[in-house]
Structure formats: structure tokens, C-alpha cells
């Protein structure tokens, strides 16, 4: 008998497993994938650390989360500065004076502010994402850097997407290409596998990979006192109210032997609509040093989701949030199982959010 069966060895499951093991609990941690780490899992090829499920950059304002991560894994400084490509031109991201200089040819913040103001479309109550973006950032920024990327990402026209997806568009009036505003930012010195390995390095944790909970539900419920479920909440309840919708991604990872530097930057976003992918990651640029004579790239293709495919981004519109609320009400009535992580909560979380959620949950477990 285990004290806990944790379903899903992503960050949420691993932080919970570590904390519970430190509290003297026994844990059976399982994942249907063949590897632990969930979406932060990495693999090393030709001496290059490959982020298997897309670029993962750690950033947080939480001292507690940053302290926790550094306790388990050596982190190093990394400043994320992606590039946007559209129609043969490149632009710095996030939107800052370098971007505006390229877009408007103006190099003074006061000038740029005026130009953006002139370019804005006066729409009082934006009815969709397009109107919202035109009202907030103006035509040039919207058509060059937002429209194509967003439509590919969500598989729908910006006119069909809710305005609420974009609450505000930060326009940075300094020449600063650091993508994130958070106080603490970085990457593991080695890889996220080190963080996961340290979290799971307890004799009280038994790990099983390649095991799908739903195929062994009865047995697993029988051998554990509590269940922490980090898979999709609707799947746990056999979709009794319906299916929560997601957007999926396909990753195409390629070993390039003709060059050791194919794009000169870790992340290149493709913001035009003539190209079907949204971004290409060149993994070696996440590393401080890399002497490999080859280079590995991963291109991300947004994809339609259906049950059975990997869930990446929750659709999170009114219909789906109402459905989630019904599952949440059902979940609250269970005494043996609790839900957590991005799939259990049906919410997009960054890594720091998930870690903080797990730490706060652990704070409440004292016995
Ligand atoms: C493309 C992409 C890029 C991202 N980039 C960043 C970034 O740069 N910075 C950042 O902070 N965050 C980023 N994130 C978010 C980050 O990936 C998540 O915050 C984090 O991985 C969530 O951890 P989790 O444990 O909740 O979920 P997951 O990592 O998804 O773990 C859940 C695990 O549960 C397993 N599972 C599900 N159902 C079952 C079942 N029935 N039986 C057994 N196992 C099951 C799954 O296989 C999975 O391994 C990104 C996310 C995506 C999709």
C-alpha cells in the first residue's frame, strides 16, 4: 500500500512527490510517457540539450520558487531574446524600441509613441481579438507581428477569437530585448532532467513509466490511500459531461549536419501567414557553451486537437470554462483523489506557477 499514487511525472507531480517523500510518505509515481519530467523533459544528442516539448525558459518573480529550483538544480543566467521573421524581414521581440525602429524608422521614444498613436484604430468596445489588437497596438504591429502568428497558433481567424485573449500589449519604450520582465530568469546549467532527477531521488518514491492510469484504474486505486491526478480532469471522469478542448502541437526535430549554426538565435518566431509553423528552436543557443559540429532544430506546428492527441494549450473560452467548472464541482466531492497541474486545473501555467501551486499544496499537508 502506498500513501500516494501520483498520476503524471510532470513538474507538478515531481514537486509533490519530493515534498511528500520528505514528509515520510510513500509514493507511487506513474506516467504514461516513457520518460519523467512531462513537458520539461530534455534529451542530449551530439552534446546538445534538446527541449523535447518546446523551448522552456525559467522565469519567475517568486523568491520562493527561485530558491526551490536553485536548491535542486544549478541554474545559470540566460536572457531570452527571440526574433520574429516576416516576409524576409527580422524584428526584435518583445515589442521594444529595436522593433519600433525597424517598423517605423523612428529612434526616439516620443516619436514612436506618436506614430503608434496615429496607427491605432479607435475602437471603443473591441468585439474580437483583431479589434482589440488594432485598438491597443495599431495596424503595423498587428499585421506584421501579431495576426499571422496568432491565427496559426489558434487555427482560427483573429476575428473569431475573443478579445479577452489579449488583455494588454506591452510596448516597451527602451532598447531592451529581454523577453521576460521577471526578477529571476535562467536555465538549468545542465538540463531540466537534473531538476527532475533530484526531485525524484528518494527511496520512498517508486517510479513507473509507460503506464496509463486509466488502463489500470482499479488496481492503482486499490494500492494507494490518496491519488494526486495531474492528467486531464475530464478524462479522469470518463468525459461524463463532455470533452474539454485543447490546441495541440507537432514538433519536428531535425539534425542539421551542413552547419553548426542555422539561425543564430534560440527561438525564431514566424509571424507571417505564408508559413505554416509558428517557431523554430535551435537548441544549441540555449547552452552557454557548445562545441558540437552539428546543430539540432525543432520546428513547432500548431495542430488541431482531438482525444488521443497531446494536449498543449487549453482553449479556455466561455464554453470550456463552464464545462471545467462542472468537473471541478465533481472533483471537490471526491475524498480520495485531488487534481493539480496544468491538465488537472485546465489552465495554462508557466513552470513557476506549477511549482508554486505544488509548494502551497504541500504547505497544507502536515500529518
Ligand atoms: C510548447 C510549450 C512551451 C512552454 N514554454 C514554457 C516556458 O518557456 N517557460 C515556462 O515557465 N513554462 C513553459 N511552458 C509551460 C510548462 O510546460 C508547464 O508549466 C509545465 O510543464 C506543467 O507541468 P505539469 O506537471 O502541470 O504538466 P505536464 O508537464 O504536462 O505533466 C503531466 C504529465 O501527466 C502525464 N499523464 C497525463 N495523463 C496521464 C494518465 N492517464 N496516466 C499517466 N500519466 C498521465 C503526462 O504524460 C505528463 O507527463 C510551456 C508549455 C508548452 C506547451
UniProtKB/TrEMBL annotation:
Domain UDP-galactopyranose mutase C-terminal, chain residue ranges per copy: 145-348
EC number: 5.4.99.9
One Gene Ontology CC term in the entry: cytosol
Domain of life assignment: Bacteria
Molecular-function annotations in GO: flavin adenine dinucleotide binding; UDP-galactopyranose mutase activity
Uppermost EC category: isomerase
Cofactor: FAD
Keywords, comma-separated and alphabetical: FAD, Flavoprotein, Isomerase
Gene3D superfamilies named among the record's database cross-references: NAD(P)-binding Rossmann-like Domain (3.40.50.720)
InterPro entries, alphabetized: UDP-GALP_mutase, UDP-GalPyranose_mutase_C
Keyword Cell inner membrane tagged: no
Family: Belongs to the UDP-galactopyranose/dTDP-fucopyranose mutase family.
Protein name per the record: Putative UDP-galactopyranose mutase Glf
Gene coding for it: glf
Amino acid at each position: 500500500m502506498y500513501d500516494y499514487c501520483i498520476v503524471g511525472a510532470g513538474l507538478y507531480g515531481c514537486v509533490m512527490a519530493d515534498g511528500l517523500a520528505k514528509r515520510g510518505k510513500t509514493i507511487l509515481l506513474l506516467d504514461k510517457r516513457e520518460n519523467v519530467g512531462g513537458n520539461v523533459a530534455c534529451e542530449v544528442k551530439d552534446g546538445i540539450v534538446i527541449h523535447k516539448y518546446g523551448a522552456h525558459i525559467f522565469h519567475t518573480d517568486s523568491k520562493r520558487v527561485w530558491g526551490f529550483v536553485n536548491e535542486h538544480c544549478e541554474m545559470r543566467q540566460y536572457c531570452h531574446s527571440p526574433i520574429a521573421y516576416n516576409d524576409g524581414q527580422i524584428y526584435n521581440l518583445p515589442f521594444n524600441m529595436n522593433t519600433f525602429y525597424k517598423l517605423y524608422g523612428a529612434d526616439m521614444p516620443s516619436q514612436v509613441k506618436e506614430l503608434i498613436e496615429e496607427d491605432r484604430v479607435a475602437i471603443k468596445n473591441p468585439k474580437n481579438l483583431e479589434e482589440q489588437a488594432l485598438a491597443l497596438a495599431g495596424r503595423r504591429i498587428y499585421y506584421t507581428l501579431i495576426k499571422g502568428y496568432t491565427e496559426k497558433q489558434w487555427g482560427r481567424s483573429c476575428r473569431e477569437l475573443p478579445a479577452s485573449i489579449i488583455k494588454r500589449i506591452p510596448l516597451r519604450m527602451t532598447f531592451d530585448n529581454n523577453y521576460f520582465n521577471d526578477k529571476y530568469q535562467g536555465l538549468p546549467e545542465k538540463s531540466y532532467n537534473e531538476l527532475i532527477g533530484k526531485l525524484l531521488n528518494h527511496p520512498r518514491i517508486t517510479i513507473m513509466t509507460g503506464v496509463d492510469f486509466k488502463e489500470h484504474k482499479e488496481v492503482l486505486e486499490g494500492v494507494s490511500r490518496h491519488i494526486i491526478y495531474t492528467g486531464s480532469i475530464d478524462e479522469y471522469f470518463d468525459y461524463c459531461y463532455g470533452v474539454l478542448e485543447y490546441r495541440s502541437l507537432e514538433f519536428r526535430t531535425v539534425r542539421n549536419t551542413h552547419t553548426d549554426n542555422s539561425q543564430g538565435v534560440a527561438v525564431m518566431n514566424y509571424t507571417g501567414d505564408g508559413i505554416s509553423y509558428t517557431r523554430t528552436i535551435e537548441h544549441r543557443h540555449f547552452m552557454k557553451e557548445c562545441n558540437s559540429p552539428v546543430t539540432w532544430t525543432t520546428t513547432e506546428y500548431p495542430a488541431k486537437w482531438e482525444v488521443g492527441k497531446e494536449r498543449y494549450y487549453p482553449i479556455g473560452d466561455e464554453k470550456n470554462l463552464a464545462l471545467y467548472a462542472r468537473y471541478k464541482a465533481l472533483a471537490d466531492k471526491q475524498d480520495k483523489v485531488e487534481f493539480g497541474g496544468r491538465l488537472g486545473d485546465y489552465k495554462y501555467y508557466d513552470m513557476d506557477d506549477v511549482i508554486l501551486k505544488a509548494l502551497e499544496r504541500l504547505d497544507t499537508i502536515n500529518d
